[in-house]
Write a structure and sequence with these properties.
The protein has about 300 residues and is an alpha+beta fold. It has 2 domains: about 190 residues, no CATH class; about 100 residues, no CATH class. A hairpin with a 4-residue loop joins strand 8 and strand 9. Helix 2 packs across helix 10 and helix 7 packs parallel to helix 8.
């Protein structure tokens, strides 16, 4: 039993690594890569025999997967009706402010987590569920049928004379036109992802900044302030996450730039001396680490550098 659990954990961890590699390097979601491979196998069925997936997946697992997926997509229209009823009901109750009276208040815990009840999140999840049913989940269903379906699935899929796929043994009461529509829909989405992966690039930036609005999410641990010979005030600050379970430590350089706006006399057309306003502050993140000692060392080096500039 333990060996099977370890094997399952290895499969899950390997899948997560593939997902990470796909998102970071190929820039195409993993399920659309699976869809691309499934289409290749569908048009080249000889490779299915070469893979011989039936030999390394137990028959009971194959039957469970096909049975569960078939149960979902045999009742897909009923599922969408239920989702539409839920969405309409929640949306209507939200408009009459029912949820403000019945939903619990937000609850925050000492481990840095917060439980919140939100009807908008429920609406978003219903929409997301509806999208997943015709994209990611359907792709897995399609791939499983290409690999494991004992019926003549590949030849029957595009056969216009077959009203449903009952001959395959797993597509009872599912219209072939509906399945083909989802196939072409996901094919279009796949083409869009491929185009995006070809033209879109991600360039690492050498530095990034914090916004004033985000400072409340951090705790200031230590700081150093000075005005170098240039005359521009600087602060070096060590901060850490306020709410995260595992805090990161941030080394931040705060710049204060004076804001001067000329006083324009519209009547005489002259420009008076500048009006002084509060300094504009920017926050440049110099380093991020979970090792506080690393941040402290970097902090000390920056302080020494600023001391020399006085």
């Amino acid at each position: 039993m333990k060996e099977k659990e370890i094997e399952m954990q290895n499969i899950i961890s390997t899948y997560k690594e593939y997902v990470k590699f796909s998102n970071e390097n190929i820039n195409i979601p993993i399920h659309y890569i699976i869809f691309l491979i499934s289409m290749f196998l569908m048009y080249n069925p000889s490779y299915i025999d070469l893979i011989n997936a039936n030999s390394w997946v137990p028959s009971n697992i194959r039957d469970i997967l096909l049975g569960v997926f078939d149960l979902i997509y045999s009742n897909i229209f009923l599922i969408y009706i239920v989702l539409m009823i839920l969405f309409t009901s929640i949306y209507t109750l939200d408009k009459i402010n029912i949820f403000n009276k019945i939903l619990p208040n937000d609850e925050q815990f000492t481990d840095g987590t917060k439980v919140s009840w939100n009807q908008i999140s429920a609406l978003h999840r219903i929409i997301k569920c509806g999208i997943i049913l015709i994209t990611a989940l359907w792709i897995y269903y399609f791939a499983i049928n290409v690999l494991f379906n004992p019926g003549n699935y590949i030849n029957n899929f595009f056969d216009e004379n077959i009203y449903d796929f009952s001959e395959t043994g797993y597509y009872d009461n599912i219209h072939s036109t509906f399945m083909q529509t989802l196939y072409y829909l996901n094919l279009v989405i796949l083409i869009c992802f491929i185009i995006r992966s070809l033209f879109q690039i991600k360039i690492p930036v050498s530095k990034y900044t914090l916004n004033n609005d985000h400072l409340s999410y951090y705790i200031e641990i230590n700081f150093y302030s000075c005005t170098p010979s240039m005359g521009q005030e600087k602060r070096i600050v060590i901060m850490k996450d306020k709410y995260a379970k595992k805090s990161n430590y941030y080394l931040i350089e705060e710049h204060a730039k004076p804001y001067n706006e000329p006083n324009i006399n519209l009547i005489k057309g002259t420009i008076a001396p500048s009006l002084k306003r509060p300094n504009i502050k920017s926050y440049e993140v110099k380093n991020v680490s979970r090792d506080l000692n690393e941040i402290i060392y970097h902090f000390d080096q920056l302080v020494l550098r600023l001391e020399r500039q006085k």
